[in-house]
Design goal:
binds NADP nicotinamide-adenine-dinucleotide phosphate, 6-stranded mixed beta sheet, 6-stranded parallel beta sheet, alpha/beta, 12 strands, 10 helices
């Protein structure tokens, strides 16, 4: 690697578990690009100075992960509309001394949904479990794809009220509702698509599930954003009763692929990236019916 070869970094804390460096370095190598991807675990008070200093460097871009997806926004020169609606940036491109922010989780979820299921989000009734960063991104994705209604379940009344009022003004054609628990069983029964955007069921709490499986029926599609484990208890139980399921690995793959294209201007080598995920997580996102 020469001194001026482009570098991409992921910033967050902690980063020990991140699969992104291996996946992106494999993708750069597959296209014979002399780019590299490194992990930078930084403190909150370093975020703004780092982004500013990288504008004039050989760093071509960043991935931003927890807990900096929102705070980083104030250090950017421009933010695309989707990312503004999400209230979070997970990808930054540096170009001509300027820093531009994007959110590729929303695009990643929609591509995964379209690749792995035949569910049409247009007109769909959605139950969103969780009101954090990725819940907003997926809600934005589904709203922009024409979902008829999105009900948000969370445990923090203020947070779900802000979530619903922000997204209602951006997407007024969607029917937005919120609950901290009341009526949840009925919302689950009426939903065409149930999305878990909480960490309930994530390693090492693999046995936990955000909803009793008795509340779900086989005609529903169940998505989980968690990708460690690749198949959560919710996904396994839903699959067992005959639901169409969408594990979080596909969103992770496609958000990375979209970020790769934003930095390099090239289509990402999906097969190479999938191969890394399959080796690490034991699951390959597949087209419906395969
Ligand atoms: P976040 O911003 O911290 O949001 C988490 C949400 O879950 C919050 O609404 C939080 O509620 C809620 N929550 C947490 N623990 C809960 C519990 N025990 N009971 C009820 N609600 C609970 O996190 P995030 O970035 O949105 O990530 C959420 C999950 O998605 C994580 O597991 C993450 O690994 C996964 N994820 C996957 C991808 C992908 O590409 N597949 C991308 C991003 C994230 P409070 O606000 O009340 O705490």
């Amino acid at each position: 690697m020469s001194h001026a070869d482009p570098v991409v970094a992921i910033i967050g804390k902690p980063l020990g578990h991140s699969l992104s460096p291996e996946m992106h370095n494999a993708a750069f190598a597959a296209l014979q690009l002399s780019w590299s991807y490194v992990a930078l675990e930084i403190e909150p008070d370093q975020v703004s100075n780092l982004v500013t200093s990288l504008k004039a460097s050989n760093v071509a871009g960043l991935n931003v992960t927890m807990p900096y997806k929102s705070v980083v926004m104030s250090s950017l020169d421009e933010i695309d509309e989707l990312a503004r609606h999400c209230g979070a940036v997970n990808t930054i491109r540096f170009e001509s001394g300027r820093a531009s922010g994007f959110n590729t989780d929303a695009v990643g979820f929609l591509r995964s949904l379209r690749q792995e299921t035949s569910l049409d989000p247009s007109g769909c009734q959605v139950l969103m479990l969780g009101a954090g960063g990725v819940a907003r991104a997926v809600a934005v994705a589904l709203a922009s794809a024409g979902a008829a209604s999105i009900s948000v379940w969370g445990r923090d009344e203020q947070k779900i009220s802000n979530f619903v009022s922000d997204l209602k003004s951006a997407y007024p054609n969607v029917e937005w509702t919120k609950t901290t628990g009341q009526g949840l069983r009925e919302l689950a029964a009426n939903a065409g698509l149930i999305v878990n955007a909480t960490p309930i069921g994530m390693y090492p709490d693999d046995n936990a599930a955000p909803l009793p499986i008795e509340w779900i029926t086989s005609s529903q599609t169940v998505a989980d954003l968690i990708y460690r484990p690749a198949k959560t208890t919710l996904i396994k139980e839903a699959e067992n009763i005959g639901c169409v399921v969408l594990p979080g690995v596909g969103t992770f793959l496609h958000q990375a692929a979209e970020a790769f294209s934003i930095w390099t201007g090239m289509p990402a080598p999906l097969d190479t990236m999938q191969e890394v995920l399959s080796r690490k997580l034991g699951y390959i996102p597949r087209p419906p019916g395969v």
